[in-house]
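task queued by scheduler; priority normal; single chain, no ligands, no partner chains; default sampling; output format set to structure tokens
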Amino acid sequence: MRLSQDHLPDPLDPDRRPHRRKSRGSISTGRWLWEGAKAVSTAIVLFLLIRTFFVEAFKIPTGSMENTLLVGDFLLVNKAVYGAEVPGLHAHIPGYDQPHRSDVVVFLPPHDPTKNYVKRIVGLPGDTLEMRDKVLLINGEPQFEPYTRHVDRFSEPTDARMRWQRDYLVKGKRDWRRYDPTRDSWGPIVVPEGKYFALGDNRDNSEDSRYWGFLEASSIRGRPMFVYYSFIRDPLAPFSWLTDIRWDRIGQLIR
């Protein structure tokens, strides 16, 4: 059956053109919004994956690691090196390395697992540690530690927080009943299997393993790689993050 010319739709009919243009516009806008949403969602997922399993940013709030790390330093931390934790499962993905002596690490301390600490590992499982007048001895050998800082010439008195060390004293070396450790003289103690001993480089001003005990291997979150930003924190200068940048520290490797 053929339609007469009067029944054929006119493509130039003004009543039809706006409807067609509106439909195409709606489709294009919807597609653009959908593609944009997919791009944003993908970016968020990638960011969360990278932050959870590979690299995360941390900042230094205290001076316990001076002069290696300064207050106002911002670090990029390699979380994959020792194995990242799977959120909510209390499990770790295997890493490609183990903590070594002198490694600077980020971890959750046993006395306050809600905060990130940054210290240097000085004792490995099985090591015998001792400090005499600020000098660290590992397995009986005095250590050369060029990264340490000492600002207090005087030794502190006995600290009750350090009495936990009595349970780990080397047998036959010290009488635990007369053991009175101080900040600068303590030990010898043995590091148990699966645990580590961490100290701050600013030895006279650091809350570390001397006071709260050994560090669990599972609590180590990663190893800092380098300083990506740094500024001199000044509470009286609200824009110190912009005006007091330490340009010489940006990009500095952490050793």
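post-processing summary
- Residues 20-53 form one domain.
- DSSP finds three helices and 13 strands in the chain.
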